[in-house]
Amino acid sequence: MTEADKLPVEVAYALPAKQEIVMLEVSPGTSAREAVMQSGLDRHFPGLDLASAKLGIFGKAIKDKQVLKAGDRVEIYRELLADPKEVRKRRAAEAKARRADQG
Length: 103
What we know:
Blueprint lengths: L6 E9 L2 E9 L5 H8 L14 E4 L2 E3 L10 E5 L6 H19 L1
Parallel strand pairs: 1-5
Antiparallel strand pairs: 1-2, 3-4, 3-5
């Protein structure tokens, strides 16, 4: 296989204060997880588990075995600090309590 047969893809990971995007050339048929493992991003982010982190392509969650296309950007997702549904419920309850106190 020649370099011309390789597909250009990116693998991205971000923390609030730091982000890295690694450009890779992968063989046709490479899965998202394989590209993530090739990225070496765990060297830049101690504690990042490349083998089990959730993945997406351009903001859409994908399965590990998703075969990549030229130009795909594989995103490694972090665990949520808070459940968005619970945060919305808490805000709604607080707003309701404020309205009750005012009225």
